[in-house]
Amino acid sequence: MPAEDLLARLRAADVRVWEDGGVLRYSAPPGAFTPELRHEVFRRKAELLVLLRKLTNSVEPSAPSGGPQPGPAATGPRPSGVTPRLHRAVEEFRLRLQRCGLPMFLAAHGASGTRDADLAAASPELGGRLATALDLLVLSRWVPAADAAAVVPPELVEHLVAEGLAETDRDGLRLPALRLVEHHGQLVFVHAVSWAEVPCFGYYGPDSAGLGRLLLGARGRCLDLFASTGAQALVMAGTAREVVLVEADTGMAPVTELNLLLADRFDTAELIWGDALKVDLGEPFDTVSVNAPMMPSFGLDLPWRADGGPDGCRILEAGLRRVPLAPHGQVFADAWLIGSVAHGPSVAWLERLARERSWSVTVVPTGSTRLEPGHLDAWAMAETFVGYGAGGSPQSVHDELTALWRGTGVDRSFACLVHARPSDEPGVTVLPGAADGPGWRL
Ligand SMILES: C[S@@+](CC[C@H](N)C(=O)[O-])C[C@H]1O[C@@H](n2cnc3c(N)ncnc32)[C@H](O)[C@@H]1O
């Protein structure tokens, strides 16, 4: 849909949008700005800003389009909405979070993003600001305005609302798209589990937690390729000399920047908005994190933010091929390798790559999914495809997938952690791992 049509839809719904110093603002009667419209506006903010500037005969914008794209943009300037005022507000927010004990509470619960049910159960037992912070920042619940104001400074609320990340009504505040997780000592905003509208936005899962654990103690010049929320960059930043993040989805900018501010790394980290397979990555790195889109599509349609290609390794392989690595550097990656229970994950591509780059590579399967007609895992995969926007019903996608698997010898997909380092004896070692079980035992 052209941006003009989106603007017309907004106007028809009585939602007024305008530009204010590079920030998209809106006003709407209660209930008019539906989650679906908000999602569209959030994803296509840059396009709308261009249009609004044109309509007011203003200058051309400098930010790249952050709207839905067939694939990532080649490269783009940094779309920063960070002002000194926001900087100060986030500093105050950080202090308030510490004072109310949320970081400690999340760390104690091991809340890597998969235990929301435990947290929801704990919430009524807690009182005061900790309960408010948990409800508002972790569980995406409505919180009365006065309570919310004790946790989130008004300047930050204003910013989140302008960015489409928070909504207010007469009674309160809610952050429907966000969830604060504790990621190895860092607080990071990621995509809310329950917010289904944009399943690829701000991805964070148990594989992220597993990769982050490997990155603790990262040294030297560090790279977070496919950075998304910046979770891995922030882990590395604790011990790194410098950190570079590369992410193509400019719609993530408000969240990633907020995370860097929250960790007090905004001024030191280098954020590159662009295609990880094309941007200039500069000097060699000592530690590299790669969490590429790795969903195996088996040839079906998936959005580019999640699509790892037919075998799930296309983007990962291309990313690994071009990473500049220092002689004693290390690469840590997540992978979702297809294969079979008889032969394990298929790593022929990785063996080629290891020879090409003179790397010694170790693969640790952390769990596996059964790709068998009718199996619960196959249904779950079909449902994920449908959730990601693949056409059809879970039944039809399940049937398509199982027809594609039949006769290929593929009956498993393996969630894996991968480590690579330069070596005179290049090759791949696959360590014994879980044959069957949850995708990520992390
Ligand atoms: C699995 S998520 C990364 C999650 C995060 N790094 C972590 O470890 O939790 C993959 C990210 O890659 C981004 N992406 C996809 N294709 C890309 C490309 N060609 N260049 C840069 N980023 C890309 C997506 O927008 C998405 O944010």
SSE order and pairing:
Blueprint (H helix, E strand, L loop, with lengths): L2 H10 L3 E5 L2 E5 L7 H9 L1 H11 L19 E2 L7 H17 L1 H7 L7 H7 L5 H11 L4 E2 H7 L2 H9 L4 E3 L2 E3 L3 E6 L2 E6 L14 H10 L5 E5 L5 H7 L4 E6 L5 H10 L7 E5 L10 E6 L23 H9 L2 E16 L3 E2 L2 H10 L1 E12 L5 H12 L6 H12 L6 E11 L4 E4 L12
Parallel strand pairs: 9-10, 9-12, 10-11, 12-13, 15-17
Antiparallel strand pairs: 1-2, 3-11, 4-6, 5-6, 7-8, 13-14, 13-16, 15-16
Helix pairs in contact: 4-9, 7-8, 10-11, 15-16
The structure holds S-adenosylmethionine.
The site of S-adenosylmethionine (SAM) has 22 residues, from helix 10, helix 11 and strand 10.
CATH superfamily of the largest domain: Vaccinia Virus protein VP39
Q: Catalogue the unreliable spans.
A: 58-70
| CATH class category label of the largest domain | Alpha Beta
What gap, in angstroms, lies between the N and C termini?
A: 41 Å
Which small-molecule ligands are present, each listed once?
Answer: S-adenosylmethionine
Helical content class: 25-40%
**CATH topology-level fold name of the largest domain:** Rossmann fold
Shape: globular
Estimated structural class: alpha/beta
Number of helices: 16
Return Rg in Å. 22 Å
Mean pLDDT reading? 85
Estimate what percentage of residues fall within beta strands. 15-25%
Query: What summary fits the major beta sheet?
Result: 10 strands, mixed
Please tell me the CATH architecture of the largest domain by its name. 3-Layer(aba) Sandwich
The number of distinct structural domains comes to 3
β-strand number: 17
